[in-house]
Write a sequence for this structure.
């Protein structure tokens, strides 16, 4: 990666100015506007708009700029995008039926997650705007396909796939946490203003994947299991 390259979200901010770093990219705002119009025409339900609002917050608010400084924020950004916003979008689009089974979608999502959190592809994405958007859109699209495909899966299969997601998230989080050296070159010189060394920032990112992110999939699996156990009682009643 060229050290002079500027990430899509802009140069890494410092604590004194990051709250003023709103991203008003006209192409991004146009894309969000078009997506909103399409959703209105398709009569998207309430959960969709909560997910849409989260996506707008991630890419328009100063959180976008902060992710240029801290890998831990970038990881949190991706977790909210794929494990919070994506299921809300799927819930608000009940007619969405992705082709292929849920197992195929979970495999595609895991592959995308591992590719884009490997040091070399990640660094390339921060150096090239087109690759940055390929990263974001592939993570969101595979996550949306996964969550939407769970609707047509049997509850035991859905629970199993959610647990697979939980385990793989914990695995990649552990690998990042216990790496002995900083792996992500774009953040070698961007974390000290925030009171973190690059290795500490990386370890925090790994912990976010390992615990909170994995917990989201575990919670979804438990919720599915709870409803599965409740089904016989509803039928019997």
């Amino acid at each position: 990666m060229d050290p002079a390259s500027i990430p899509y979200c802009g140069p890494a901010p410092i604590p004194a100015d990051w709250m003023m770093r709103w991203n008003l990219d006209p192409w991004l705002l146009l894309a969000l506007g078009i997506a909103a119009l399409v959703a209105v025409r398709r009569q998207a339900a309430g959960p969709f708009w909560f997910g849409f609002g989260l996506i707008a917050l991630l890419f328009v608010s100063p959180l976008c700029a902060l992710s240029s400084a801290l890998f831990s924020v970038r990881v949190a950004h991706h977790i909210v995008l794929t494990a919070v916003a994506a299921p809300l979008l799927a819930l608000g689009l009940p007619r969405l039926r992705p082709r292929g089974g849920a197992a195929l979608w979970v495999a595609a999502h895991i592959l995308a997650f591992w590719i884009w959190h490997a040091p070399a592809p990640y660094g390339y994405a921060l150096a090239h705007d087109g690759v940055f958007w390929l990263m974001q859109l592939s993570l969101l699209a595979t996550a949306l396909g996964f969550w939407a495909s769970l609707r047509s899966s049997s509850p035991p299969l859905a629970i199993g796939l959610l647990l697979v997601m939980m385990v793989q998230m914990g695995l990649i989080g552990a690998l990042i946490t216990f790496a002995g050296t900083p792996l992500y070159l774009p953040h070698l010189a961007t974390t000290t203003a925030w009171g973190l060394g690059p290795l500490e920032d990386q370890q925090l990112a790994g912990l976010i994947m390992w615990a909170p992110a994995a917990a989201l999939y575990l919670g979804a699996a438990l919720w599915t299991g709870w409803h599965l156990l409740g089904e016989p009682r509803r039928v019997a009643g």
